[in-house]
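Table S2 (text version). Query chain:
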Amino acid sequence: MAEGAEEGPPFQLGKPRFEQTSFYGRFRHFLDIIDPRTLFVTKSRLKEAVQLLEDYKHGTLAPGVTNKDLWRAQKIKQAIIHPDTNETIFMPFRMSGYIPFGTPIVVGLLLPNQTLASTVFWQWLNQSHNACVNYANRNATKPSPTSKFIQGYLGAVISAVSIAVGLNVLIQRANHFTPATRLLIQRFVPFPAVASANICNVVLMRHTELEEGINVMDGDGNIVGSSRIAARHALLETALTRVVLPMPILVLPPIIMSLLEKTSLLRSRPRLVLPVHSLVCLAAFGLALPLAISLFPQMSEIETQRLEPEIAGATTSKTVVYNKGL
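Corresponding structure-token output:
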């Protein structure tokens, strides 16, 4: 029994290792997904992992292979290979590369004394990185026109840049602020800019779901129908996640840094400000990302009676589930 506990739950192909109904289970699941160690997996190790899963699928596993080996192989494959296209995802755009490649952008967004040009540059770079990550990890089961991604990207860039620039101009023109207060308020500008761009991106990329609806399933995974009401809920939950996600990443570091900059250590050694700022951003990003994406389950539940009459009539289930998307 002790050996079984050590090597984790019995392996299930394509299923998450941790229970998705609890926050802690989802948190551990997403820690696995964003684990940056998978960025260093060699081609031969990836090939071994894929082969091991193929052997499991065809019932030809070599003796001595444990559940732990199978879970590790699945983690490697899922981190590197797109589930729908079976192609290798470019390293900076993998979910496991989101923190290492995204942190320098967060540091740039939160730099104090931003000029107009630097504000525009960092907001554009952030939305470009997000768009590439979204595209690389998209659901490719239903072919989606590239024009939709371009539309979502342009909408996000325009809203992020215009809000960041607009707020900065307003703060500069506000005469009743002292220079210190102005600088402090300016540090919080990236959050509303990024949050509104995220909402804009979700709406532009997924507005067709509001017209066509999304599939809802009963407890056994059978598709009951396509619901526009469920689509509205899915979009709302995704938009909320996208607002909660940047909050700790873009709000905590300015608060922490404004306190640290008052210490004698950083006052006497101004060269340390940027390295300390970078570490604070990395810590905030590393903790906030798995916490925020674990808030809502990937599969959301809704009471059948709250949906369209034709869907309520098509099943005996009291509740149905739908995939809310990321």
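Notes on Table S2: Residues 44 and 50 are 10 Å apart (CA to CA). Residues 146-173 form the longest helix (28 residues).
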